[in-house]
Amino acid sequence: MAEKKAVLFNFWGVTASSTPQEVFQTLEEVHNLPRGFLCGVASKKDSAMIRAERGEMTLSQMIPAFESECLKEAKVQGVSLPSDWSVKGLLKELQEAMMDVQPAMLQIAARLHHRGLLTAVLANHWLDDSAAGDGPAHLLSLLGGRFDLVL
């Protein structure tokens, strides 16, 4: 049996130019939140965002849970969340960033595939059950057309 080789791409920071941490940092600056506040809440072991990425909850379930986690952490840290801040706004920024797929990376994946290598991308997306879920669905369709496997 012939040996198959594969290349695994990370979505954030490779296939898409931004990382969630960069989006969080920008929002922290815009809303005068302490540096690392949003990333700290999102990256806790069983945070709503982590559970959504594991498929344990949908987007509509994750939004109020993550909002609650942010409010709780703000209280612990003595941070005031601005009145114009919301998890929905954060997710909108993340969704815009994830749509910024690098054409060069898609071309590289196609070249590798044509040379007989299997390609996969680690996407870490949540189940978007919102009415506006067509953006992420379009993205996953785009990735699925270029990579052998989207995880």
TrEMBL record:
Taxonomic source organism: Pagothenia borchgrevinki
Designated name of the protein: Uncharacterized protein
